[in-house]
Amino acid sequence: MTKSRVRITSGAPWEDRVGYRRAVRCGDQVFVSGTVSVDADGRPHAPGDAGAQAERCLEIILAALAQFEAGPEHVVRTRIYVTDMAPESQAAVGAAHRAVFAAHPPASTMVGVSALAAPDFIVEIEADAILDQAGA
């Protein structure tokens, strides 16, 4: 049996340039691409503020999930990439993550990296969701 795939786009020009989509649904699974903190015009949001960038990344992720009628309760795994592993940055990113997922905590990893897509991006987050597992 073949599972259908549905791809959604954020409309960002780099999706076609690089060859990816914001999120892909395959059966009951949704995979949200690495998401950086951009504003409505595609500019970096809150340069230098890890907590605010994490909040914005998660807003974008939740908007992508909503297109599949999914929410934070469906997320089973997140991956967080940060360019600064200082305790303050980890705490700020963790607080943003907890604000979204405290009621249904997913498996999660935070990894320190040397750089992201542009110098103003200091946080990037990916998410995987399973639609039939709400609240489990």
From TrEMBL:
Gene3D superfamilies: RutC-like. It comes from the Bacteria. PANTHER family: BLR7761 PROTEIN (PTHR43857), YJGH FAMILY PROTEIN (PTHR43857:SF1). This is RidA family protein. The lineage of its organism: Bacteria, Pseudomonadati, Pseudomonadota, Alphaproteobacteria, Maricaulales.
